Amino acid sequence: MLTKPDIEESGEGAAGDVGEALVEASGLEVHFGLRGGLLGRFSGRAAGAVRAVDGIDLTLRKGEVLGLVGESGSGKTTLGRTLIGLTKATAGTVRYRGQDITALGERGLRPLRRRLQMVFQDPHASLNPAMDIRTAVGHPLRIHQLVADEQEYEARVVDALERVGLTPPERYLGKFPGDLSGGQKQRAVLARAIIAEPELLVADEPISMLDMSVRAKILQLMLDLKRDLDLTYVYVTHDLASAKFFCDTIAIMYLGRIVEYGPTAEVFANPQHPYTEALLAAIPEPDPERALPRELPRGEIPDAARPPMGCAFHPRCPVAVEACGWEARDLRTLLENRWLELAPEAATREKSLFADVESLAVDGLSTVAIAPGRGHSPEDVLEYLRHLREEASQAEPREPFWRGVVSMHAESGRAVVEFAPPRDPRLSLIPATGVQVACHLREPVGSTTGT
Amino acid sequence: MATTTLPTGPIEPDASAKGTRFGGLRRITAAIREARGVPRFMLWAGAVISALFVITAVFAPLIAPYSFDTYRSGGHNFPKQGSPDGDHWFGTTVQSLDVLSRTVYGARTALEVMLLAVVFSLILGVLLGLVAGYFGGWLDRILVLVMDALFAFPYLLLAIVAGFVFSGIAGGGVVTAALSITVVYIPQYFRVVRASALSAREATFVEAARAMGAKPSVVIRKYLFGNVIQSVPVITTMNAADGIGTLAGLGFLGLGIQPTQAAEWGYDLDRAIDDANAGMWWTSLYPGLAMVIAILGFTLLGEGLNDVLNPTMRRRRISKVLLPAHTRRRTVTAPALPDVPEGEAVK
């Protein structure tokens, strides 16, 4: 990556300045190596890396509920897991009460696990089917040797079960996970998570596998637990509605980066990043009379192993500007989308202008030399592209791609298209709101110099 | 997902929590009680035959009229190759030994060897399988390589080689025979347990255990063991059956237990080959029959258990619902109906 988005004035950044910083991440990166094809597997050569988490800075204060929101594949779960040391960071640091937990090995982390707990997405899979509730819920006590004798153990387990609403506890002690419903299982998982008195609880979509009727109850239970036990939550979700209900601070993630980070109410009332706007627009409106036509982002979330240059959202962004990181891949997408809509003959005719459209698929090309097809000159290609630009300038909504094209000219038998130099948007504070956003459109006027 | 393929009938390794242990047993016994049809027949037939075999083996000194190496009684020798009669129901061998006694004592030898071999291979195979499956990496690779190499040998050849090696250390007794059979069966347990451990390792509850701060040894004992052990009882009974055959094979080749140490069916069969040519059927028939019955018993037990415990094989039957007796009361309450206002009765 070129630059790390950095937080300016992180001291007053997020809204919940309620307590001291509990967890601080800076420059956090988690890249998973890819093994590639059969040959690569044999030779053990890595074929690139998936950038699940790509340069993240955030501060989690005591008592805060931070929501990590994003589409599938945005790295929100990986970030949540890395914050408590379940996934190894490849770069950057996570400090828990000043102690760098990325430097600790599995052995060094074990004592800390008592304080940093996790609730997994699937309650049906996160309890050992061969272990009864008495043993399963109390196991952290045994692991960390927190109880002296059986009476104390039993009392703590009963207390934890009562706290999560599995009452009367005696009825559940001898049961196996298979005897419980999904909501009851998630309650048992929560009991197990809180029994060792943790400080931070990372909840990875804790309600997404539950019935609608149980979801609100579990969220309310989590809020009650937070109040009673002085917990701090990281709530990982793709469900904006529950995040709005549950979180103090929200971080919208896209392709391993935070694009918007601020107090929940502010983010929802006044979304700054085009991606946030799109996410909010995607919340279904139950009343068909009131449903507005909405602009959902085009296409799919890009491959995290080959993220777009500049702002990762630019290929899907309706309001992208020239510095957003336009590149050859975007031209290919544009052409292919056009040819899909045209009649097959016309598409074939236009395709023949290009010798090899696939050559545009290489990532990171800021200047691309297009070879003209057989029987065509580079001027023909340029003419065609100019024609496209002309067409686009009249169409509504305007295609933002052409804003990124700086020049098109012929050079030694090829049509050369040059794009504006890409620039990574940095998280910058919007004054008076406490929201940080990584978007070129929202940058303070002084800091628009490129990298 | 891994957990869905795992049967939920645990055998809890740790007896610290009573409920867990009994709960686990209850689940297995419940499955056995629910069995119907052919699996039920196989299970019970196998259990009865196996129980007979075990009883014979345990009470051999009471059942057998003579000891396995007795060739004279009351001051005169037994007849040589005598046909079955009132004194020797199953006849006598070329060495003037009583065939009935040798067959009964043979069951004892077979049981001893079988138990030792099964216990040894169970402990070693399950332990190695769990460790290899959970930790993976180089340890796993090396173990898999060794186990596959063991698999590649014909099992009798392997047992013979192991028998040679161990007889130098432990002599030609029951323990040596058991050890040489153990070597043959370790890879089976290893493979099955490793495969289950590999899939269970990826399960969320194992990850959750790690997130709780559990050490690998705790994860293996408390979270993996109970979930991978279900496939083991079936292999155990199958191996028990197979072990009897392997022991007999070794004895037949003269490589198993020394004839002075214990009676052994395979050895008896070997000595009976010439008799069979001479028309003396009893010396080979009875040890052979005993062997067949013992193997049949354990195989039926194993197959039955497999059908009953394996959730992919198990078919739940819908039993006929019998209406409870007090449904008659309905006819009693029926006359009360007209009292209800008609509008409500329609509802």
Automatic annotation (TrEMBL), chain A:
GO molecular function, one term: ATP hydrolysis activity
This protein's UniProt keywords: ATP-binding, Nucleotide-binding, Transport
Pfam families on file: ABC_tran, oligo_HPY
Residue ranges of domain ABC transporter in the record: 34-280
A Gene Ontology BP annotation from the UniProt entry: peptide transport
Alphabetized InterPro entries for the sequence: AAA+_ATPase (IPR003593), ABC_transp_ATP-bind (IPR050319), ABC_transporter-like_ATP-bd (IPR003439), ABC_transporter-like_CS (IPR017871), Oligopep_ABC_C (IPR013563), P-loop_NTPase (IPR027417)
Recorded superkingdom: Bacteria
Recorded family membership: Belongs to the ABC transporter superfamily.
PANTHER family registered for this protein in UniProt: D,D-DIPEPTIDE TRANSPORT ATP-BINDING PROTEIN DDPF-RELATED (PTHR43776:SF7), TRANSPORT ATP-BINDING PROTEIN (PTHR43776)
Protein name: Peptide/nickel transport system ATP-binding protein
Automatic annotation (TrEMBL), chain B:
Single GO BP term: transmembrane transport
Listed InterPro entries: BP-dependent_transpt_permease (IPR050366), MetI-like (IPR000515), MetI-like_sf (IPR035906)
Domain ABC transmembrane type-1: 107-302
UniProt main location, coarse: membrane
Bilayer topology annotation: Multi-pass membrane protein
GO cellular component, one term: plasma membrane
Top-rank taxon: Bacteria
Keywords: Cell membrane, Membrane, Transmembrane, Transmembrane helix, Transport
TM region positions: 41-64, 113-135, 142-162, 168-186, 281-301
Subcellular location: Cell membrane
Family designation: Belongs to the binding-protein-dependent transport system permease family.
Protein name (record): Peptide/nickel transport system permease protein
Source organism: Actinacidiphila paucisporea
Taxonomic lineage from the root: Bacteria, Bacillati, Actinomycetota, Actinomycetes, Kitasatosporales
